[in-house]
Amino acid sequence: MSLQTDTAARPGAGWALPAPLRRIAADPWLFGIFVLLTLSVLVFAVLPIVNVLKQAVWTPEGFDLAALKTTLAQPFVWRALGNTLILGATSALVATVAGFVMAFAVTRTTMPGKGFIHAAALLPIISPPFVMALAIVILFGRSGLITRELLGIRNANVYGFHSLVLIQSLAFTPIAYLNIKGMLQSIDSALEDASASLGGTRWTTFRQVTLPLVTPAILSSILLVFVKSVEDFGNPMLIGGPFSTLAVEAYSQMVGYFNLNAGALLASLMLIPSMTAFLIHRYWVSKKSYVTVTGKPTAQSIRISGARVVLPLSLVCYFLALTILLFYATVFYVSFTKLPGVNNTLTLDHYRTVFTAGFDTLGNSLYLAGIATPVTAIAGMMIAYLLVRRAFPGSFLLRWGTLLSFAAPGTILGIGYIGTFNTPPLLLTGTAAIIIAAMVVKNLQVGIEAGTNQLQQIDRSIEEASTILGASSGRTFTSVTLPLLRPALFSSVAYAFTRSLTTLSAVIFLVSANWTLITVTILSQVETLKTGVAAAWCCILVVVVLAILALMQLVLNRSARER
Amino acid sequence: MKRPLALSSALALLCSVASAQAAPLTVYCPMSDDDCGSVLAAFAADTGNEARFVRIGAGEILARIRAEKANPQAGLWLAGAADNFIQAAEEGLLAPHKAAGIDKVDPRFADKDGAWTPISMSPLVFAYNADLVEEAQAPIPDSWTSFADPAYQKNVALAHAASSGTAYVALASVVQLSGEDEGFQLMKDIDKNVIQYTRSGVAPSRMVANGEVALAMAFTQDVEAALAAGYPLDYAFPKEGTGFEVNAAAAVANAPEDQATAATAFLDWVLTEKGQAAMGATFRGPIVPGYVNPEARIDLSNVKLIDYDFAWAGANRARLLERYENEVRHKADAQ
Questions:
Q1: What pLDDT shows up at residue A286?
Q2: Are A241 and B195 in contact (CB < 8 Å)?
Q3: B284 interface with A at CB cutoff 8 Å
Q4: What pTM does this model have?
Q5: Which of A143, A242, A548 is closest, CB to CB, to B333?
Q6: pLDDT tens across B16-52, in order?
Q7: What's domain A74-290's architecture?
Q8: Cα–Cα distance, B277 to A56 (Å, whole number)
Q9: Out of A418, A514, A527, whose CB is closest to B67?
Q10: Does residue A96 register a pLDDT over 90?
Q11: Which residues of A touch B195 (CB under 8 A)?
Q12: Which residues of A touch B53 (CB under 8 A)?
C-alpha cells in the first residue's frame, strides 16, 4: 500500500513526500486503523449522501443543469435559506449561552443544588421527536394551559420563529452544556489560581483565563447547535407556521412533490452554511494553543462562593432548569390525562395501552442503540485522535466525510441508505445492521468534537513521554490518551446513546417489520391523535434512559476510583 | 431490571426472526397502527396469509419503494391516496393485477391497467370546534367559501397539499368546482386565515379537536377517529358538494415470488364482502357499494359528492401543486 503511493506520487510531488510516508512507516497499525475508519466513513457516510445529492443535477436522462436553474430562480428557496440561517444562528447563540452558564455554575461555584441543575441540563437530550413541540402547543397554544387557562389570552399564536428558537434552544442546550462542562472540568485550575494569587480580580480571571481556555468548547457548541438546527426538520414542520426552513422545503420537494431534483438541491444548500461554519471554526481554533493538561499534578479546587456571583448565576440556572422541567412535566401530565385540554380527568388508560402493546419496540431501540453507542464513542475518539495528533495523507477525507454525515439532514441519509445498501455486495436493507450504521454515522461528529476539544488541551509531551519510554503508539493511545479523554468519552457515550434512542428522521426509512423502533411507535401515536399514549411512551423512555445513564455514571466513577 | 427486559425482548425478536422462515407478506401501510393491524388480521383469519406491516406515511412509502426498486423489501403497499399510486405506476414501481372483484367497482375509480386496486372511498368533510366558532362569532361552515370568511382569521389549519392527500383532494375539488382561476383565488383568500400548514392530513382536524383552531378539512375516517376517542368535534359538508379520495393498494413490482403471490391474494380479498367489511371497520367508506359500518356516526349514504375527476386530478397534480406553491403559499409569505 505504502509502496504504491510511493511510486505513484513521487514524480510529481518531489520533496513533500518523505514526511507523511515516514509517519506511515512509524505507525503501520495506526495507519491501518486510519485506513479502515476512512473507508467506513466513505462507504457509510459519504457514498449514500452523494448518491442522493447527485440527483440535483443528474436526472434519469442524464446531466441536467436546467432543472437546477429553475429551482434556484424561485424566491422561496432563498427565503428558506435566509430563515434557516437566522434560526440556526439564534438557536446556537441562545443554547450555547444557556449551556455555558449552567456548566460554569456547576463546575466553578458553590451554587446549591448542582445535581439538580446537572440533571435538568441533560434532560432535553432525551427528547423524543415531536414531543417538545407538542408540549409547547399544550402550554402556549390557543387552548394552552399557560396562555389561556393561566393568563386568559385568547389569541395566542404559538406558531412561528419565536417558538422554534425556544424549542431548539431547549433541545440543544445539553450539547453545549456537556461540551463546555467537560472542558471546564479538565482545565488545570492552577492557571486560575495563579491569576487569583497574582491579584487578578474574579472578573479578570474569568475574562482573561477561564473564558479564553474554554473557547474551543464554546465555538464547537455554537457549531454543533447551528448544524443541528439547520438539519432539524420535525420542529419547523410542526410549529414553524409561515416560517419555512430548508429542511422542510427539501422534505416536501422529495416526499411531497416527488421532485427529487429540487429536493436534492435544497438539501445541498443546507450543507453550505454548515460546512462554512465548520471551516470558520477550524480556522479560529487552529490559530491558538489551548494546552493546559501537561501531566503536572492538578487540583480541581477553585470554587467561587461570593453571593454576588453565585446568586444571579443560581437564579438563571434555576430558571433554565425549571423551564426544561416544565416541558417534561407537561408531557408527564398529558400521559395521565384522558384528553388533554378537552377532558382533563386523570387516568391510567394510556399506560394500560402501553403495557398491553408490550415493549418489543422499546427493546429493539435499546438493543440497537446499545450496540451503536460504544461503536460511536470509540470511533469518535479514535477519529479525533487521528485528526488532531496524526496527519496521515488523506486525513481530509475523514474530516469532511464525518462532517458531511452530520450536516446532512436525516431524511437524505435515510433515503441514501436504502438506495445504496439495497443490492449486493452491500445488501443491508431490512437488517439491524443498517439501523445501527445510521445511528453511528448520525452521531459520530459529536464524539469527534468532544474528543478534539479535549485533545487540544492535552500537552503532546505526555504522549511523547510514553513513546520515549518504549510504549507502542497503540499502547500510548489506550493507556495514556484514552484515560485523559475520559470526561469527553462519557459525554459522547451519553449523547450517542440517547440520540440513537430518540433518532427518527433517518431511521424512519430503515425500519423493517422485524426491526421497528420506539420513536416510530411514538410518531404513529402522535399522528393518529393518541397524544396520551405517545406521552406515556415518552415518560417510560425518559425513565429508562435516565436509569441507564445513572448506571453508566456509577460504573465510570467506580472504575475511576479503582485506578 | 431494564437489562433483562431488553435482553429478553431481543431474544424474543431473534426467535420471531427464526420462525419467520415461512416469510409472511411484508406490507407498507400509512393507516394507523390499529387500522393496519386489524385489516391484516382479518386478511390472515380469512385466507391464512400471515402479514407483517411497517407503518410509515404514504409519501415516505413511495420514496422508499423507489429507493428499493432494485431489490424490493415489501410485497404490498396498503392504503394511501390513489394519486400516490398513479405516480408510482408511472415510474414502473407497481406490479399490475386485475383484482377478482374489480368489475363491481365504478370504473371511474379504477385504473384501467390494474396497476393499483381501489379499496375504499373517503369523502372530505369540514371539522369545526363549536366553542371556538362561537367565540369567533363566525358562521357555522357550510361552503368552501366559509374557509375564506374573515371571521376565521388565523383560525384555520390546512395540510400542505404536497405532503397530504387530504389537502390535495381539497385543492383539486375547489378547482374542479369553480374553475382553475377562481379556485386559486379562493385558495389565496383562505390562505389569509391559515395559521399553520401541517405535513400530515390528519393534523388539522386534530388541532380542531384540541381547540387550537376553529376550522379544518379532513377525511371522514379522521373525524370518526376523533369522535370515537371522545373529542368534542363537529362536522359539516359543503353545500356545493364535496370531493373524495379513492384509497388504493398495489403489489410492488419485482417483489420475491411468495411476496407477490400473497400481495395479489390480498388485492383479490379486499374487494370481497369480508375485505370491504375490514376496510369499513376503519371508518373508510366502501368502494364496492353496500357495506355500512354500524358504529359510524357520519352518514355517508347521503353525502353530496361532486363529480370528482380524479384521473384529471392525478394527471395534473404536479402542475396544480406548482401553481399552488407559487401563487398561494409563497406569494402569501412575501406579503
A1: 67
A2: yes
A3: no
A4: 0.80
A5: A242
A6: 444 444 579 999 998 888 899 999 999 999 999 999 9
A7: Orthogonal Bundle (1.10)
A8: 45
A9: A418
A10: yes
A11: 157, 159, 241
A12: 513
DSSP one-letter code for A209? I
- Residue of higher predicted confidence among B310 and A245: A245
Q: How many CB pairs lie under 8 A apart between chains A and B?
A: 175
Q: Going from the N-terminus, what domains does chain B have, and what CATH number goes with each?
A: 23-121+245-286 (3.40.190.10), 122-244+304-334 (3.40.190.10)
Contacts of A137 in chain B (CB under 8 A): 210, 212
Residue of chain B whose alpha carbon sits nearest to that of A360: B9
Asked if the bond preceding A425 is cis, omega within 30° of 0, the reply is: yes
Distance (Å, whole) CA A406 – CA B145: 46
pLDDT of residue A287: 64
Q: What is the pLDDT of residue A386?
A: 87
**Amino acid in the structure at residue B290:** G
N- to C-terminal Cα distance for chain A?
40
**Contacts of A380 by beta carbon, 8 Å cutoff, 6+ apart:** A444, A445, A446, A447, A448, A450, A451, A492, A496
- Ranges of chain B whose pLDDT falls below 70: 1-22, 330-335
Q: What is the pLDDT of residue A298?
A: 56
| Every domain of chain A and the residues it spans | 74-290
For residues A209 and A191, the answer to whether their CB atoms sit within 8 Å is yes
Assign A149 a pLDDT band (cuts: 50, 70, 90). Answer: confident
Please state, in angstroms and rounded to a whole number, the distance separating the CA atoms of residues A472 and A461: 15
Subunit contact A430:B17, Cβ cutoff 8 A: no
Look at residue A300 in the predicted model and tell me its pLDDT. Answer: 57
- Average pLDDT value for chain A: 82
Diameter of chain B measured on Cα atoms: 64
Amino acid type, A501: L
Chain A: closest CA distance from residue B234 (Å): 14
pLDDT for the residue numbered B13? 44
- Which residue in A has a C-alpha nearest to residue B201's C-alpha? A527
- Quick one: closest CA in B to A142, which residue? B212
Where helices occur in A232-341 by DSSP H, the ranges are 234-239, 246-251, 260-286, 307-335
Residues 6+ apart with CB under 8 A from A111: A105, A117, A310, A313, A314, A317
Q: Is B220 on the interface with A (CB under 8 A)?
A: no
Mutate to test the interface with A, among B50, B137, B193, B210 (most CBs of A within 10 A): B210
